[in-house]
From TrEMBL:
It holds the Pfam family F-box-like. Residues 583-601 have a biased composition (Polar residues). Residues 454-482, 568-582 have a biased composition (Low complexity). This is F-box domain-containing protein. It comes from Crepidotus variabilis.
Length: 856
């Protein structure tokens, strides 16, 4: 019998070639559809196969999709100047996507490294960083050439001026406010002043926002006209515009930018913060502390070209431990408030606020509160705290040049703060046209009275949420099921941990219509040791969106009646609030909630059964919203360097402002300067503590009296605001034992270092639900453990990390030490900024130098 010959091995390549030829011969639209399932690493792999697939995978459409993926993960593109995506050539787009992905992926596993030292080309372009570009033939170009092309750049601050605030405006300019009141635009490519606004008197910069489409910067300056830290205080604000004429190439225009005046307005009371909500609609708002009632006043200019304003007392309790921001959402002004245990969002429709518009008699008149007006709707959602335990990660470090799909996010935490009774009763009141009223129950210490025992939602179930509305009908909103596991305790409760500073940041330019509107909150928590007189800090972070609970929001939007008409002038505030509850308060504290989830409308629980009673599974929106409430920490305590913005005592003999921490935050990262511990020999990059540091005992902060009350006006970088925005001035002060640590306990020569951490990335599809696994079996197990809602699938690109682990959270942040120039004295630094899109840290020192450190 003749045996059959085995097939010749030489024929197999021809079969593979046929298969490859079949793939490469597919229509382009089909290849394009396949590419939507690929990340950058997959695309780079296709580049190595054949010419046809290389050509198909290097098209503008493919890289536009990859750029969109980066932006949906809220990672920035390193564009030059005011460039937009449409301004880029295909080659520039490919280079930007590759670089942004490299930043994103590499910094998950290692510290940023100084860029490679390369000479500039004839056009003054540095291939590694836009910040290092110079104008050919200029003084700076000659100086940098003589310095052998270092990885950093040193430019000048305004001469003979002290820098009060500084921030980069793209990679080409810095905007600097001086302590004499000037605002200066500085060209970092020529090291020269381009434009200056000098009002001739002392003004302080309060807010800055960049509108990239218009190539315009809006900023507000303020000064105190009269009064102390009470309701009699009168401040004047000026809103200015700085307009650039740069073209689509990203190169600086020969025509310098121009300052122009927009409007002036006055406020009455202690201003906590100002928000440029929408310059295109000329909409501005501010939070004002109503000291007579210890509530938040909402001041708004519906159209800053007009002389009309809205000034209401919201009735929301002003709790010192809260961190506040203001956001525009679907024609609602949203007061976003974060306490140590939960987040709140209070909604004011603009159409409702317009019913309370007032007009100033003349330009020298001061505004007055028109009435007490509760929010039309309020949402609440509790934070989910991690369990600190030993974390192990079996993932090996990938090819950093190819891997582009980073871990999805786990939100991080809010810090506790100061109790409500910290706010004193102060003489003097803002005139209230419609009389007096009782405060609305906002976030309060009553909800976190027992911090050690208080709890939030489980990491594996929907977190607690609630909603209230000022309508007179019952709500029929669906409710997320109660958690089935015990809640994790807050690892950093108050006391002893209190919020030293807070930062609210939105994703960086450019923004596309389908990019999620997500914000990032970062809080620096502090605890003071009464024995050593040292203050230790930890960093907490999380993401959030508006609304906090989309299902509750959508259901209430369908069932809620229109907002009530404006009450007559003779009506008292309490009567106009009667629709909220019989007691005139909005019940949003945990005292009015069950251990699980409760929706409250008009002070009553809904009549319908909860979703948990109906065994209704959570929707995809529920899962995503709950994921954002998970908290993340840099949990190894450190001692941050702090600086004073003014003299140790005010001119009137009062107590000076509290020192400002040298911390900067962008959407995905944070940097700070810290003292090096005596026992920590310098370069310990791992944040490997398994449990939080022992909490030093701290007594309850004593109640301040008179004008020494402290209003924390945290840094709020809403919308497209610039960078870290330096701390909004803490105009009031609490005189406490914490003042013993106002200056470092160690002398100035104490060694310091520049530190860096990367936050867990955000991913829109399932927001940190499931990790990437090497086998289908592991992936199927992850899907089962993640408890995805019916119909949900793991659509590519697959998520690479998860907070859904047995210990209940992502590992604490890994902190790295950044290299610094030998000439830079960190003890002289006065301001710090970070630009994640360019991989740059910008520092200014007391010697009139601005240091731009570029990393890769």
């Amino acid at each position: 019998m003749l045996s059959k010959k085995p097939p010749s091995p030489h024929r197999r390549p021809s079969l593979d070639s046929e298969a490859m030829a079949g793939l490469s011969s597919l229509p382009y639209d089909l290849l394009l559809n396949i590419s939507t399932y690929l990340d950058l690493r997959d695309v780079h792999t296709l580049h190595l196969t054949c010419r046809a697939l290389y050509d198909a995978s290097t098209t503008r459409t493919v890289y536009r999709k990859l750029a969109n993926d980066l932006l949906r993960r809220c990672r920035a593109l390193p564009l030059k100047g005011f460039q937009r995506l449409s301004d880029l050539t295909t080659e520039q787009l490919v280079r930007s996507v590759n670089k942004a992905t490299h930043y994103e992926t590499a910094w998950r596993f290692r510290a940023p490294r100084p860029i490679r030292q390369t000479s500039h080309n004839n056009s003054g372009i540095n291939p590694h960083s836009n910040y290092m570009d110079v104008t050919p033939g200029g003084v700076l170009a000659g100086r940098m050439s003589a310095e052998e092309s270092k990885w950093y750049k040193v430019v000048s601050a305004p001469p003979d001026e002290e820098v009060d605030w500084l921030s980069p405006i793209t990679s080409s300019y810095t905007l600097c406010a001086t302590k004499s009141g000037k605002v200066v635009c500085w060209d970092v490519q020529t090291d020269s002043c381009l434009a200056e606004w000098n009002p001739g008197e002392h003004w302080e910069l309060w807010k800055c926002r960049v509108e990239f489409e218009e190539r315009t910067v809006f900023f507000t300056m303020a000064k105190v006209l009269a009064g102390s830290y009470d309701d009699e205080r009168v401040m004047e604000f000026v809103l200015m515009r700085l307009t650039f004429s740069d073209g689509p190439s990203g190169e600086s225009s020969l025509q310098p930018p121009e300052f122009s005046h927009v409007t002036n307005f006055r406020t009455t009371g202690v201003v906590m913060n100002v928000f440029l909500l929408d310059p295109s609609e000329r909409l501005l708002s501010a939070f004002i502390w109503v000291s007579a009632h210890n509530t938040i006043g909402l001041y708004a200019l519906p159209d800053w070209d007009q002389k009309t304003y809205v000034f209401i007392d919201t009735g929301i309790e002003c709790v010192m431990s809260s961190n506040w921001s203001c956001i525009l959402y679907q024609q609602h002004i949203v007061i976003h408030c974060e306490e140590s245990e939960a987040a709140y969002q209070h909604f004011y429709p603009i159409s409702l606020l317009q019913q309370y518009t007032s007009t100033l008699a003349d330009e020298h008149s001061s505004p007055a509160i028109s009435c007490r007006l509760p929010p039309a709707r309020t949402l609440k959602k509790k934070f989910v705290f991690p369990l600190f335990a030993d974390f192990t990660d079996s993932e090996e470090e990938p090819d950093l040049d190819l891997d582009s799909h980073p871990p999805p996010p786990t939100p991080a935490s809010m810090g506790p703060g100061t109790p409500a009774q910290l706010l004193p009763s102060v003489n003097g009141t803002i005139p209230i046209i419609n009389g007096d009223g009782q405060p609305i129950a906002g976030p309060s210490t009553g909800s976190v009275a027992d911090n050690a025992g208080s709890s939030s939602s489980s990491s594996s179930s929907s977190s607690s949420s609630s909603s209230s509305t000022s309508s007179s009908s019952s709500s029929s909103s669906l409710v997320i099921p109660a958690p089935s596991q015990p809640d994790n305790p807050n690892p950093y409760p108050f006391p002893p941990w209190y919020p030293e500073s807070a930062h609210f940041v939105r994703q960086w330019w450019p923004s596309l219509p389908n990019v999620p509107r997500v914000s990032c909150t970062v809080v620096l928590l502090a605890a003071h040791d009464q024995h050593t007189h040292r203050t230790r800090f930890v960093l907490a972070q999380h993401y959030f969106r508006v609304p906090l609970d989309r299902r509750v929001w959508d259901n209430e939007a369908e069932s809620a009646p229109p907002h009530p008409p404006r009450s007559s002038p003779s009506s008292s505030p309490s009567s106009s609030m009667s629709s909220s509850s019989s007691a005139g308060t909005i019940p949003i504290t945990t005292n009015g909630m069950t251990n699980g989830t409760s929706t409250i409308a008009n002070g009553k629980h809904p009549a319908h059964e909860t979703a948990s009673n109906n065994h209704e599974p959570p929707s995809i929106e529920d899962v995503q919203d709950d994921a954002l409430m998970h908290l993340w920490y840099v949990s190894t305590p450190f001692e941050v360097v702090r600086v004073f913005d003014g003299p140790e005592e005010d001119d009137d003999g009062g107590v000076a402002e509290r020192p400002r921490p040298l911390v900067a935050v962008d959407f995905g990262h944070a940097v700070w300067i810290e003292y090096i511990d005596g026992e920590a020999d310098g370069e310990e990059d791992e944040d490997d503590s398994a449990t939080p540091a022992p909490e030093p005992s701290i007594p309850a902060i004593p109640v301040a009296t008179g004008s020494n009350a402290d209003i924390f006006a945290e840094s709020d970088v809403e919308g497209m605001d610039v960078g870290e925005m330096s701390e909004i001035k803490r105009h009031l002060h609490v005189e406490t034992d914490l003042e013993a640590d106002a200056t470092p306990s160690s002398p100035e020569p104490d060694p310091k270092r520049l530190r860096f951490v990367t936050f867990p990335p955000f991913a829109e599809e399932y927001e940190a639900l499931v990790p990437v696994y090497q086998s289908r079996k592991e992936r199927a197990k992850a899907v089962a453990e993640a408890q995805l809602p019916p119909g949900a699938t793991l659509e590519p690109p697959m998520m690479r990390y998860t907070h859904h682990r047995s210990n209940g959270g992502l590992p604490p942040g890994v902190v790295h030490t950044l290299a610094t120039p030998p000439e830079l004295q960190l003890g002289d630094v006065e301001t710090i900024n970070i630009d994640q899109s360019q991989g740059a840290v910008i520092l200014s020192d007391k010697n009139g130098k601005i240091w731009i450190l570029c990393y890769e």
